[in-house]
Write a structure and sequence with these properties.
The protein has 434 residues and is of the alpha/beta class. It has two domains: 7-71 and 327-433, Aspartate Aminotransferase, domain 1, CATH 3.90.1150.10; 73-324, Aspartate Aminotransferase, domain 2, CATH 3.40.640.10. It has helices at residues 7-18, 73-85, 94-106, 119-134, 188-198, 221-234, 253-259, 289-292, 311-324, 329-350, 376-379, 384-396, 417-433, and strands spanning 40-44, 47-50, 55-58, 112-116, 138-142, 155-158, 161-167, 180-183, 202-207, 210-211, 217-218, 237-242, 269-272, 283-287, 356-360, 363-367, 399-400, 409-410. It has a seven-stranded mixed β-sheet, sandwiched between helices. A four-stranded mixed β-sheet has the order 1-2-3-17. The radius of gyration is 21 Å and the shape is globular. The relative contact order is 0.16. The structure holds 4'-deoxy-4'-aminopyridoxal-5'-phosphate. 4'-deoxy-4'-aminopyridoxal-5'-phosphate (PMP) binds at residues 63, 118-120, 123, 146-148, 208, 212-213, 241, 243-244, 273, 283. It comes from Ramlibacter montanisoli. This is Glutamate-1-semialdehyde 2,1-aminomutase. It is an enzyme of class 5 (isomerase). Its EC number is 5.4.3.8. Keywords: Cytoplasm, Isomerase, Porphyrin biosynthesis, Pyridoxal phosphate.
């Protein structure tokens, strides 16, 4: 398939001369799996084409946003219209209200919304608001959850875990993460201990309830229930990072999945991104009115953005949300995703490969492990060299999944039964060769 001149390689060489690692976000560089990143030329529906003109079935979908597939006609139309009306004004627009209304309509815990441009910004601002509202500094995050790259959130677990963490990145002074406690995901005992010692100092607990940054790990229902109880008891806010899961696992996000299992369940604040922008730079955070009214210009917690609520991005997001709110949308998407996951499981079992997989709505994950992991150390027991072979085997057969074993996968409305059948055929061949 690869032509004599590999244009991806040529572009990668050019890119590396100017852009660190040749990419503008690290995971795109294929560092975990080796080989040359595919440079995308164009995308349509469930596919994209690389610089060599090779076609791929896309299970990344821009890491989540492209829930309708690429170039959905009604989204294109909305974006084209918006572009003609102007790119950015730095003054409010009606469309920002419409998008906020649409978000609040589907996520009952969100009464007010502030729009921003990236998930990083949204999570960082939500933490600032939690701290500003409670007058407390300490926060809890969980190992394996990613909340963007704001300094205070770039923390790994300290030894023994239930201690304050260490910076994961150079350039983050230890003082900046001294208030960030990193606990093991799904570990109720550790959570209880942390609240027993620091409960009155905690501004918030931030969590990916279905953690897509360790592939696909669900917070157990008892764990989530305890999180909610402890936050309420100690006056800390429970912040759901739904940048990935929001409008992706269900219209109401991961919180609606937990609310089905825990009566009356709701987080205090929600961080969103990806799908709400439909592929444009747009993210948000929201919560109850009394909390959100502490933001500038009404309250003392400062937050702002030149491009926040950008008119082209809001047009794209709004058109996307309107499409996915159709009643038939999520059941059909979930069915497609399930058929992919079930097919992968049986292909693995035919090949005698240790394999576990899970999905919710249009998000899925699989592991080269005999059972679903419950936390980050268990996820990282996956066989990385074997995953690398699997990744390249699929890629060679025109199937593009995330190039790292700790990343989730995404199915879109545009994926057809034939795409899924082709993916499963590729998987059967690759699994056998493993
Ligand atoms: N939170 C979660 C759960 C995410 O998955 C991501 C990005 N993958 C972010 C926050 C950060 O979002 P962004 O990349 O838009 O800054």
């Amino acid at each position: 398939m690869t032509p004599n001149i590999d244009k991806n390689q040529q572009l990668f060489d050019r890119a590396r001369a100017l852009i660190p690692g040749g990419v503008n976000s690290p995971v795109r560089a294929f560092r975990a799996v080796g080989g040359t990143p595919r440079f995308v030329q164009r995308a349509q529906g469930a596919y994209f084409w690389d610089a060599n003109g090779q076609k791929f079935i896309d299970y990344i979908g821009s890491w989540g946003p492209m829930i309708l597939g690429h170039g959905h006609p009604r989204v294109l139309e909305a974006v084209q219209q918006a572009v003609l009306e102007g790119f950015s004004y730095g003054a409010p627009t009606e469309r920002e209200i419409e998008l906020a209304e649409e978000i609040a309509r589907h996520v009952p815990s969100v009464e007010m919304v502030r729009l921003v441009s990236s998930g990083t910004e949204a999570a960082m601002s939500a933490i600032r608001l939690a701290r500003g509202a409670t007058g407390r500094s300490r926060i809890i995050k969980f190992e394996g959850c990613y909340h963007g790259h704001a300094d205070a959130l770039l923390v790994k677990a300290g030894s023994g875990l239930a201690t304050f963490g260490h910076p994961t990145s150079a350039g983050v002074p230890p003082e900046v993460v001294q208030h960030t406690m990193v606990l093991e995901y799904n570990n109720i005992q550790q959570l209880e201990e942390a609240f027993a010692t620091h409960g009155k100092e905690l501004a918030c607990v931030i969590i990916e309830a279905i953690a897509g940054n360790m592939n696909f790990v669900r917070a157990s229902v008892p764990f989530m229930k305890r999180c909610r109880e402890l936050c309420t008891q100690h006056g800390a806010l429970l912040v759901f990072d739904e940048v990935m899961t929001g409008f992706r696992v269900a219209l109401g996000g991961a919180q609606s999945v937990y609310a089905r299992q825990i009566p009356g369940f709701a987080p205090d604040m929600t961080v969103m991104g990806k799908v709400i922008g439909g592929g444009m730079p747009l993210a948000a955070f929201g919560g109850p009115r009394a909390l959100m009214e502490r933001l500038a210009p009404l309250g003392p917690v400062y937050q702002a953005g030149t491009l926040s609520g950008n008119p082209v991005a809001t047009a794209c997001g709004l058109a996307t949300l309107k499409e996915i709110a159709r009643p038939e949308f999520f059941p059909a998407l979930a069915k497609k995703t399930q058929s992919l996951v079930e097919g992968l499981k049986s292909a693995a079992s035919e090949a005698g490969l240790p394999f576990a997989a899970d999905c919710e709505g249009g998000m899925f994950g699989f592991f080269l492990l005999p059972q679903l992991p419950q936390n980050y150390p268990a996820v990282m027991k996956s066989d990385a060299p074997k995953f690398g072979k699997l990744f390249h085997g699929l890629l060679d057969r025109g199937v593009y999944i995330a190039p790292a074993l700790y990343e989730a996968g995404f199915v879109s409305w545009a994926h057809t039964d034939a795409d899924i059948a082709q993916t499963l055929q590729a998987a059967r061949e690759v699994f056998k060769a493993l």
